[in-house]
Amino acid sequence: MSGVPTAHIWLPYTQMQGHPEPLRAVRTGGSRIILEDGRELIDAVASWWTACHGYNHPHIVMAMEKQLNAMPHVMFGGLVHEPAEKLAARLALMLPGALNRVFFADSGSVAVEAAMKMAVQYRLNRGDTGRTRFLSFRDGYHGDTLAAMSVTDPDEGMHALFKGYLPEQVIAPIPRDEQSNATFRQLLHERRDQVAAVIVEPIVQCAGGMKMHDAATLKTIAAAAKESGVLLICDEIAVNFGRTGTLFAHSQAGIAPDIICLGKALTGGAINLAATVATADVFDAFLSDRAEDALMHGPTYMGNPLACAAANASLDLFDTEPRLQQVATIEAQLQRDLAPMATLPGVVDVRVKGAVGAVQVADLHHLDWLKAQFVEAGIWLRPFGNVIYTMPPLTVTPAELSEITRAIAEILPRWSALESDTR
Ligand code: PMP
Question: Which residues line ligand 1 (CB under 6 A)?
């Protein structure tokens, strides 16, 4: 297909009119994407935050090859298989508290939908019919399907367009000090008879602009949910598996969510898989002698054996390779390299947490120009909203990471000059 324009492809989040031909990827390896024209790009965003072990890790590839030959897929309705059983058992063992019942999904958004459905039905099955809303946070993002969109920040682009179609939720700012803690607790208390669950991205709200909060904030949110008798859903899809410095982000606060959503790096970035994990208490509410109390959800490809095999291999790597140490090294380097950018014109804030580094600017125009500049510098980096950020593979080498941060340092001043020229 070399040289044939993408006449039949509809790209994500893209105004297709007049859009330049996208780059063509032909191979990946380590932290790199190889293009059809032979250029190699260091992936500063790990393919939408999935490729935590870098690309094509031989341990994952081998596990998938083995599974591919035995059984690439079989339906999960009425059948189970070893890769899924093993993965569910491992996740239950790794997760805190009573989070031990794993519902597999095929994407993060679907995992969030399943979590929301679980929370509402948890109440219904107990005869409590009024709790159908969710409390979610400003700058939050939970996916592109409609229920997931409803708990995403309402000022986020596509939201306004779908107003009236999306269920209305209770949206609160992330509480960050004593006063906002009290306001948050009061809001949740007042709305507790309507709210089925609080849903939060722990530690870093990623797609909403790489906004960070500390463990104390998360503790406050969890305590307020408990106080008001409302379930807590932690959406760790973007931050799970080491991204913020611990295997799971919420464990930095020592809290025990009722439901957790996992995805993205779950398979080490090799194939799509997500999971919604519930506590025994949530699961028990679905046990009864009435068929209608069952969870009525079942994505066609849920529990796909090939994806489960990849995820099992990915979990092995967290045991056998020093991923969390690598995150600590990345964090230190990002802090060192990005901090000086805080004083550049146009820069509003520089934030680092684990293997997430973000440079927030006042206004981000010339997005296509900026992306092209990074490609020219040999870096695959995708600024959005008002942030230029990196979430590299956790296996990125210090030299590769230097190339990423050097490109940001060189391109930022040129971008800022361009912005002030057009102002
Ligand atoms: N939740 C969070 C926190 C996410 O960052 C994303 C994806 N960026 C999703 C849910 C949705 O996941 P998916 O794109 O796999 O549907």
Answer: 107-109, 112, 141-143, 201, 206-207, 235, 237-238, 263
Best substitution site from 45, 137, 141 to test ligand 1's pocket, by max atoms within 8 Å of Cβ? 141
144 as an active site residue: the answer is no
Q: Pick from 388, 119, 108, 58: which is nearest to 259 by CA? A: 119
Which of 113, 142, 236 should be mutated for ligand 1, with most atoms under 8 A from CB? Answer: 142
What is the location of CATH 3.90.1150.10 in the chain?
Answer: 25-53+322-421
Domain 25-53+322-421, CATH class in plain words: alpha beta
For this structure, is 235 an active site residue? yes
For domain 58-320, the CATH architecture is 3-Layer(aba) Sandwich (3.40)
Cβ neighbours of residue 379 closer than 8 Å, sequence gap 6 or more: 41, 42, 44, 403, 404, 407
Ligand 1 atom closest to the CA of 48, numbered from 1? 8
Distance 291 CA to ligand 1 centre (A): 31
Cα(136)–Cα(173) distance, integer angstroms? 9
Question: The pTM is what?
Answer: 0.97
340: left (phi over 0), alpha (psi -120 to 50) or beta: alpha
Q: Any idea what DSSP says for residue 26?
A: E
Which residue reads 């990915």 in tokens? 314
CA 70 – CA 67 distance, rounded (Å)? 5
For CATH 3.40.640.10, list the domain ranges present in the chain: 58-320
Per-residue pLDDT of the chain (423 residues; tens, 9 = 90+): 444 457 899 999 999 998 888 999 999 999 999 999 999 999 999 999 999 999 999 999 999 999 999 999 999 999 999 999 999 999 999 998 899 999 999 999 999 999 999 999 999 999 999 999 999 999 999 999 999 999 999 887 677 788 889 999 999 999 999 999 999 999 999 999 999 999 999 999 999 999 999 999 999 999 999 999 999 999 999 999 999 999 999 999 999 999 999 999 999 999 999 999 999 999 999 999 999 999 999 999 999 999 999 999 999 999 999 999 999 999 999 999 999 999 999 999 999 999 999 999 998 888 889 999 999 999 999 999 999 999 999 999 999 999 999 999 999 999 888 887 766
